[in-house]
């Protein structure tokens, strides 16, 4: 294990699903916007250009909401680990990490911290199967290498 090894992980399947859904949402709202013309159903009003623009805007806004789910990432090196989930981000040194967990049936992996907290890593999803397993193994190798380095320093070698 080299000091400069960098592990970068992103979910794969959720990215494909979210990008597909975002494109579909913009297309659907675009089609709805083009069909908004003329009087309303009861004849008391009529659709204007602003209504069409608003529908397209809603489609884009919804698509951006879907794309938030493509944000999760994990980066790790010999110094520590950086976790970016959908909304929050964390940067932790390996000293505060007790272990890397991926429990059977869990939707994603998590970090077991020394203060008994579990920090989810949404970037390592069970839906990605072998990609997620390989990612967890790589993170465990980095963590074990750091633990071994600490043990060597403690014994004075």
Description:
The protein has 157 residues and is of the alpha+beta class. Helix content is 43%, strand content 25%. The chain is built from three helices and nine strands, in the order βαββαββββββα. Strands 1-4-5-6 form a four-stranded antiparallel β-sheet, with helices on one face. α1 packs antiparallel against α2. It is rod-shaped and about 85 Å long. The mean pLDDT is 90.
Summarize the structure.
The protein has 157 residues and is an alpha+beta fold. It is 43% helix and 25% strand. It has helices at residues 13-35, 49-67, 130-155; strands at 7-9, 38-39, 46-47, 73-76, 80-84, 89-93, 97-101, 108-113, 118-125.
Q: Give the SSE string.
A: EHEEHEEEEEEH
**What is the strand content?**
25-35%
Strand tally, please? Answer: 9
- The multimeric state of the shown protein is single chain
Envelope shape = rod-shaped
Radius of gyration over all CA atoms, rounded: 23 Å
What is the end-to-end distance? 18 Å
Strand order of the largest sheet: 1-4-5-6
Largest sheet: 4 strands, antiparallel
Q: State the low-pLDDT regions, or none.
A: none
Share of helical residues: 40-55%
Class derived from helix and strand content: alpha+beta
Q: Total number of helical segments? A: 3
Mean pLDDT: 90
InterPro entries: CFP-6_PH (IPR019692)
Pfam family, one: bPH_6
Keywords: Membrane, Transmembrane, Transmembrane helix
Transmembrane segments: 16-33, 53-70
